[in-house]
Amino acid sequence: MKKDFTNADPAHHDFQYLEDLSTAYWYSQVLFTALELEIFKFLDQGISTLDDLASAMDCREAELFRLLRAMERMALVGHDRDHWYNAQVASRFLVPDREGYMGAFFLYRKYMASNWEKLSDKVSCQGRHKGEDLDYKQRNQRYVEAMDTLVKQKAPEIADLAARQDAMGPILDVGGGSGSLARSILARIPGTRAVVFDLEEVIEAARKIYPEPQAWDRITPLSGDFRSHEFHQKFGLVVLSNFLHAYGPDEAKQLLQRAVSLLKPGGMVIIHDYFPDRSGRSPQKGALYDLSMMLNTFNGACHSAATIRAWLEQMDITPVETIDLTTDTAVMVAGGSGNLKSFQKNICDTALALGFDRAVPLSPDQVVTAPWVRMKCRFGCAEFGNNLQCPPQTVDHDRTRAMLDAYTQAILVQGAPPGRDFHKRLLKLEKTAFLAGFHKAFVFGAGPCPVCPSCPDTGICRHPDQARPAMEASGIDVYTTAQNAGFSLTPVQEKNNYVKYIGLLVLE
Q1: How many structural domains are present in the chain?
Q2: CB pairs under 8 A, 24+ apart, for 296-300?
Q3: Is the CB of residue 487 less than 8 Å from the CB of residue 502?
Q4: Cα–Cα distances in Å, from 404 out to 164, 294, 351, 398, 425?
Q5: Rounded-to-integer distance, Cα 320 and Cα 270, Å
Q6: Burial tier of 98 (Cβ tally within 10 Å: 0-12, 13-18, 19+)
Q7: Which residues have a Cβ under 8 Å from the Cβ of 481 and sit 6 or more positions away?
Q8: Which of 23, 62, 54 is nearest to 37 (CA)?
Q9: What pLDDT shows up at residue 203?
Q10: I need a surface site. Which of 10, 33, 388, 508 has the fewest CB within 10 A?
Q11: 42 pLDDT band (50/70/90 cuts)?
């Protein structure tokens, strides 16, 4: 899936766009590394299993797998069972000796990278603003402050999820930093307290960030080594936010077991992290963050949601639900009441099981409506006036906006032709949501209604139970809405190019 950093839009209003810009070099470095290791050449020669590739390229097998996984998320390679293969764009431009080979050109871009680091020097009259020579204590203070700003972007959504699950206290936030996530959860769960546990130097930095006593109302900051610290109470909720990825699989499993051992009967664990096997808004980020852990920690790794689910089930902590946030991370909820009241309960996973390529949650206010959309239908589509689910029969953008504002949750799905199959999947998804208790569930399709070859002359739909209006037919700006969900969507300009269909499910 293409990551398009050129989608600059003055309407951007969340931090995720800036976060993607700040890590853009991760994407390019994966491409450069793959070219330098000649991965595309070996795959083209039929060397396709992980062990054969590692042997042919003289690479470490485990680390090579993590690189290939990131490449797959970036749509450079794919794999089927144990065999890896080049994606279409890689076969065309990245295999040496092919007519269209451009690898040398892309590597030239890498050689230019060091000069881009001098951009501040060129722009500033005083030269580059050099980083200060900080000692460990100062660097730690900066780190805790930086993480606090990130947590505050994610905390409200995680806290809402905990509240909907009827989480009980007390709360233990492991690796809780400056306590912003705990504060957000406490604001939604009155009458309980939280322990924010972290290293001594982190707690010291946190108190400098929040020196006011009221900032620690109902919060006990506690320092120590989580592996050996002796806790004198049990907890109704244990939170592990961006914690397990700092450790390799063996130690991460032990730390998770330690967290589970601190639960009260009926208690719940919330794990917030980057998961390489989740799609969500930024499907590449989990695999790329895993490479960042490989480069910046001793043995850290982003563990897959499937792996952590298996660990939790081995520990008899069930049920386990995984929920993609509207940013680039996800949350796993285990234990508790077993009745996860989340708008995503199984819906995104169900969408993928039905055959959709992607399913991403977004809020209804991220679904954009505009008056020009139906004009494009009128002056650009041959079906205008011929289909009962197309303009002018469908509602205009104002009425669609009013409808969307009556919902609090939405999921955008992506699929491919044929249109009739895509439409059937949408109807199955709507039915699944309805039967799960979302009685207001409704889907918007893509393109003219495909249920019948043609609409009746009577002007009355034969199958209103199956017909659904398209997003664009209802005044929804599909391109901007897709962009808000992190989808890459551009007009098809040539035959045989990959075609994407976009559908929308709204829930309450």
Answers
A1: 3
A2: 297/246, 299/247, 299/248, 299/251, 300/245, 300/246, 300/247, 300/248
A3: yes
A4: 22, 43, 21, 10, 21
A5: 10
A6: middle
A7: 362, 366, 367, 368, 412, 471, 502, 504
A8: 54
A9: 96
A10: 10
A11: very high
Q: Is 262:173 a contact under the CB 8 Å cutoff?
A: no
Q: CB of 391 within 8 A of CB of 493? A: no
Three-state SS for 117?
A: coil
Domain extent for 245: 137-335
Can you tell me the distance from the alpha carbon of 411 to that of 346, in angstroms, rounded to the nearest whole number?
12
Query: Where residue 308 sits, what CATH number does that domain have?
Result: 3.40.50.150
Do 329 and 181 lie in one domain? The reply is yes
β-bridge partners, 505:
411, 443
Place of tokens 């009441």: 337
Residue 234 and residue 87 share a domain = no
| Residues 162, 101 share a domain | no
Question: What does the block give as tokens for 108?
Answer: 């030239």
Of 98, 123, 148, the residue that ends a domain is 123
SS3 77: strand
Range with lowest mean pLDDT among 6-10, 175-179, 185-189, 474-478: 6-10
Tell me the DSSP string of 480-494: HHHHHTT-------S
Residue 181 placed within a domain: yes
- Give the burial string for 251-262 (b: 16+ CB within 10 Å, else e): ebbebbebbbeb
Say which CATH number the domain at 84 has: 1.10.10.10
Please write the tens of the pLDDT for every residue from 427-478.
999 998 888 778 899 999 888 888 888 888 888 888 888 989 989 989 999 9
Q: Which two tokens stand for residue 194?
A: 């939280």
CA angle 5/11/15 to nearest 5° reads 60
Looking at residue 274, its amino acid is Y
SS3 202: helix
The single residue listed with the structure tokens 């969307």 is 404
Residue 128 lies in a domain: no
Contact (CB, 8 A) for 293 and 349: no
State yes or no: pLDDT of 341 exceeds 50: no
Output the six-digit token pair for 202: 């982190």
SS3 call for 17: helix
CA distances from 106 to 30, 57, 145, 284 (A): 12, 20, 36, 20
* Burial class (CB within 10 angstroms; exposed 0-12, middle 13-18, buried 19+) of 116: exposed
Same-domain pairing of 328 and 353: no
Q: Which among 278, 274, 203, 195 is positioned nearest to 239, based on CA atoms?
A: 195
Contacts of 391-395 with C-beta under 8 Å, sequence gap 24+, read: 391/473, 394/469, 394/473, 394/474, 395/469, 395/474, 395/475
Coil, strand or helix at 250 = helix
> Are residues 109 and 255 both part of a single domain?
no
Domain end point (choices 123, 157, 183): 123
pTM, rounded to two decimals: 0.74
Q: Computed over its alpha carbons, how large is the radius of gyration of the chain?
A: 25
